[in-house]
Amino acid sequence: MKRQYNRKDHFYHKAKSEGYRSRAAYKLDELQTKHKIIKPNAKVLDLGCFPGGWLQVAAQTVKKNGLVIGIDLKPLEAFSEAESEIVKVIECDLYHEDLARSAINDYYSEKFDVIISDMSPSLSGIKDKDQAESVELFILALRYCDLYLKDNGSFISKIFPSQDMETTFKEHKKNWTSFQKTTLKSTRTSSNELYVIGKGFKPKI
Fold first, then answer.
1. Cβ(111)–Cβ(125) below 8 Å
2. pLDDT at residue 9, as a whole number
3. Active site residue 74
4. Domain limits of the chain?
5. pLDDT at position 161
6. Which residues, including other chains, have CB under 8 Å from residue 152's CB and lie 6 or more apart?
7. How confident is the model at residue 17 (pLDDT cuts 50, 70, 90)?
8. pLDDT surpasses 50 at 119
9. Above 70 in pLDDT, residue 124?
10. What percentage of the chain has pLDDT greater than the value 70?
11. Core-most of 10, 39, 147, 148, by most CB within 10 Å?
12. Is a pLDDT exceeding 90 seen at residue 133?
């Protein structure tokens, strides 16, 4: 039997009470607790950053000498003055790589220590369509690793399981020292999402 979707679950209410923009903040917090991907002073690129929960957690982790740049088509609500010292948001289509590159360079012209992505397709309920779009977004996130991630950098990305996703995962595993999938306690019980953790990025030659 399909698990019931509950938008206003425990993590939803916790996010509201603790000032996070979405319950998804606890996913990155859980990933960070388990895997220590983001370090103080790190430079982080957040792909598909709306509504900003991951930006908040990343900013708290990199602290005042770090930088977190988020990109999304949707405009985000303004951040606090303190957060804005660390967080920079770009309103841009990630598929327009030249525009994204120009906008990123306005804030930071080197490669990033970490790239994170909680991107998800707008689910239609059509299984094949949703799975194909999920694979496409995962490939897009990996493309940004090729463009913007440092040698030996780290990566986090949401995925949804499918045969095509498994094939894509295996194809790209060789580009990392460690490339693994994990489930999260903070994922909704109705979701089958997984997260990929990449460490030790080895750029293509």
1. no
2. 61
3. no
4. 10-201
5. 95
6. 177, 200, 201, 202
7. low
8. yes
9. yes
10. 91
11. 148
12. yes
Each as own residue / partner, the long-range contacts of residues 8-11 (CB below 8 Å, 24 or more positions apart, any chain) are 9/188, 9/189, 11/186
Task: Tell me the Ramachandran region of residue 41: left when phi exceeds 0, alpha when psi lies from -120 to 50, beta otherwise.
Answer: left
Q: Return the CATH number of 10-201, one of 3.40.50.300, 3.40.50.1860, 1.10.10.10, 3.40.50.150.
A: 3.40.50.150
For 41-55, what is each residue's pLDDT tens digit? Answer: 999 999 999 999 999
What is the rounded CA–CA span in Å between residue 127 and residue 88? Answer: 35
Q: Which one from 2, 14, 158, 170 is the annotated catalytic residue? A: 158
The 43-47 sheet, strands edge to edge: 87-91, 67-72, 43-47, 112-117, 149-159, 194-201, 176-182
Q: Are 179 and 159 in contact (CB under 8 A)?
A: no
Q: Which of 150, 202, 146, 141 is nearest to 176 (CA)?
A: 202
User: Would you call 7 exposed, middle or buried from its count of C-beta atoms within 10 A (0-12, 13-18, 19+)?
Assistant: exposed
> In the predicted model, is pLDDT for residue 193 greater than 90?
yes
Pair 49, 24: CB distance under 8 Å: no
Helices (H) and strands (E) in the chain, counts: 7, 7
In the chain, the amino acid numbered 153 is: G
Q: Quick count: other Cβ atoms within 10 Å of Cβ 193?
A: 16
